Description:
This protein has helices at residues 36-39, 43-51, 68-75, 87-94, 129-142, 196-215, 239-243, 254-262, 274-283, 297-303, 307-319, 321-325, 371-374, 387-394; strands at 16-21, 53-58, 104-113, 119-121, 145-146, 149-157, 160-166, 224-231, 247-250, 266-267, 290-295, 331-335, 352-358, 380-383. By secondary structure, the protein is of the alpha/beta class. It has two domains: 7-84 and 235-394, Alkaline Phosphatase, subunit A, CATH 3.40.720.10; 90-231, Alpha-Beta Plaits (2-Layer Sandwich), CATH 3.30.70. Strands 10-9-11-1-12-13-2-14 form an eight-stranded mixed β-sheet, with helices on both faces. Strands 3, 4, 5, 6, 7 and 8 form a six-stranded antiparallel β-sheet that branches. α8 (254-262) links the parallel β9 and β10 (266-267).
Amino acid sequence: MASMDLAHLVQDGGKIVLFVWDGLGGIQAGPNDVTELQAARTPNADRLITAGCGGLLEPVYPGVTPGSGPGHLGLFGYDPLEYQIGRGALEAVGVGFDFRHGDVAARLNFCTLDKAGHVADRRAGRIPTEESKQVVAKLADAIREVDGVEVHWAPVKEHRALMVFRGEGLGDRLEDTDPQATGVPPLDVRTRDGLAETARTAEVARKVLAKARDVLADEPKANMILARGFAKRPHWPGMKERFGVRAAVVAGTPMYRGVAKLVGMEELPATNEVEKDVQSLAKAWDDYDFFFLHYKHTDKAGEDGDFDAKVHYIEEADAALPAVEQLGPDVLTVTADHSTPSAMKAHSFHPVPVLLSAKTARRDTVTEFNEVACAAGGLGLRPSMHLMPLALGHAGRLAKFGA
């Protein structure tokens, strides 16, 4: 995939809203052999796509299952194959941790180990955030330094937490310890290169995880941690620099705020309640050119394998669309960072549906917002990173190229 430098084409123009229904895409494995989106009642999205245009987006590459980080970076116009980042950095920035260059952060899942030391539940029963905070405090009191490296801890949400190493000569080329399966033990900390700094950091991580297991041994659910996405803080150009837009994020989950803030978006108050989050966006309407509005519940229902709940949350997101429209965006796009079919209980490689609503949209024959209908849309099947320049173009923010 080739990317184009748009900086020299940027000009003033209209306002853009990117409304992401996380994990939206599905497969025909539900009742009546339809996807969750096909089963849902989405009158507002159907109306918008009828008057606009639709298509499918490939988050990273054909057949490749994306994480949430690369899935969103593509939607922001950043090639996820070029701008790679571990989830730890996204969580650290998202929760507002003092994440410094040289630190190494890892996203943690509290998990439940059985008596044999095998993972029985990768999310520790999705323990509530208040309980998670208590477990994090327990770790923070017991493990503060290992081999001259400071160890910092922070709660994130529910079963998610953050671990940050701070010291000289650390590396982040470490593999996850999450086996992504139950009935097996956590993975060892392995390295992805032969550098001394990576080997040193891996040894620190092994000792920290071993101590954590002892500290948490008496916990009924969260009796171990799984580490994912070891990462340092990257140096990336922001959206103002690349696309000339003042950008803001409304996202109630720290990871998504993190990826947005790493590309220069400013954080607005968020709750994960879509009506309140639209109100937060509305209050800041005059201050920004681009708004990223995130909706998490569709993804969570997909990961839980709950078809009916995912249908319900799709309908809840659809019901919020008129309030967004009333603000008068010049371009409104609705799509997803990746598919999370409830039949698979996980992210998948399937393309995601997209609708683009703008006065300049070239209408196609699509009248329903779902994966099958969008396959016939005028936007076709294209990489996710093409959505941002399309939105900029429809907002009148890109000048003519060439003579």
